[in-house]
From TrEMBL:
Protein name according to UniProt: HK97 gp10 family phage protein
Source taxonomy: Bacteria, Bacillati, Actinomycetota, Actinomycetes, Kitasatosporales
Superkingdom assignment: Bacteria
Amino acid sequence: MARRSRLDGLDRALRALGRIPEAMREARTETLHEWADAVEGTAEDHAAVRTGHLRDQIEQRVDERFGRAEVGVWDPEAMEYAYYVEKGTSSMPDQPFLVPAFDEHRRQVTRTYRAAVRRHLHGGSA
């Protein structure tokens, strides 16, 4: 009987190991979306608002397949203005909104990912 319980334990361990890659992918996707939402919201909060057009142009892009998240201004017509606001010009001081948003949420990624991996490994959902 001791031999059978060892095999049952091995089967359980192998099933748990088999869940790791999918749990990590799910956790990565969850983390990317959570991070992008947070950065986008903070960038919108920091954006200079005269008309609101710049703030409304801030968007996130999440590529789950390649595990990449980006937040920025993607509209070609607004991109140049966004750069001038972020970096300033000779006649306008800088009013950074993207870099501070990235900096504010940079450290959260690792903690969020670790927590999500644990949840997904133990059968919890997002």
